[in-house]
Amino acid sequence: MREFKNESTLINGNLALSIAPALTPNGVENDPLFFNGEIIYPTIVSGGLLVLADIVSTRYFKYVPVAQRDPILSAQGDILRAECFSACNGVYARMDLFQSALDGEILYGTTNVDIGSNLRKSLFNVKQGDRLKFRIGDDGWKALHSKNFDGSVLTDIHIQRPVKMPDRWVRALGNCSMLHQNMEYKFHIEGMQAKSFIAMLPAATGKERSGWLTPTKTGVMLKPKEEKNSVYISGLHRLSALKRIMSNVNAVYFYAPNDGEPGQMMIEVCMTGANITLSLTAKSYEGYSGEGALLDSLSTPKILECADKIDNILNFESRLDIDKISKTIGIVKNDMNDAMELLAVSGKLGFDVRDRAFFHRELPDDPDRVLKDNPRLEGAKKLVEDTEYIYDNIWHVKSGDTTYRVIFPTDENLENAKCTCTWYLKHQNSRGPCKHILAVKLKKGV
Description:
The chain is α+β, with helices and mostly antiparallel strands. It is 25% helix and 31% strand.
């Protein structure tokens, strides 16, 4: 279990964010330093942190405030990214803080960052024109504290708060990465129209409103029917945290799935030196889960090997050049795509819709979590010895006292595989293959 050794603080113009032991290019560091310098736009940074704090501590479906979780922070040389999910797991939030907003060098690594209640209270008081020294990480944070006239430190908080990554966050990060690849730009609004849109958002505690966000001459309207370039949203109140940054918004971009069907939506709020992205599930009562999404790739030794090769050369890049990586390690395009998706579902890769590129993060957690989070794959491994080829494309898989009949297609496309088990009869392959189909796949070694 990792721990925050100190608490994030904001005292007399010194903002110090405490982080847990991190994974960096040099391996695990107990006292990492991601940034030390000055914030050029303090109200934008403080507002963005408050947006994340609001979202991570809110359950939007049947509203309930909950205990604080700790956002994931990635330092990628030219950008700082902080990511989190709402307590209901139905809202993904990311703040991108660019080098142009900071006076100082951004380093490299990934960890969790503490945005506790004491820091939140201080961030409320940051005003336009304030100057903030900014430090992320390492035990040197105490040097930033203001002192009394007698030289004593005004605040010297030492805590040992455990840092736990919610298991479902890892699956949800992978789910988001895949879904975001299928998102496309629909429209955007700027200036006062952007500010007005955020001003009209209902409170997190408000009545749920759903419909089509539609561009008009005066801004955006929520309409009951789809129109050109409109974006469907389930639960407009799930955007309410953006009110924290309303006065600093320059533009708002709207994205929707490229299949044209009502579903997940994404909104990107652009400010000077920073962006905030919110991604919402297709229904307000649904969460990002990623269950079964990549069981096919997980059960393929070839793809596991390709993913391992790619993982070995990743170095906290903010934008991955897929073609360059493919040529460097000699992996064909199809295998490359499958391996990238496997790395995404393990939490190692995020996807930036505007850049149309993956970015690298390393979650300082159990490296075998992705396999542990897929019990069907673990179950399939136990059934391999009791899997028997019958004839043509028919297989029998014995599980307990029951033998299941699996039709495994000659083209080895798992979407066309069939099984007589209850899971398959209920879900078909919409939530990934059942453990019996996976057992056949493992037996065949494909």
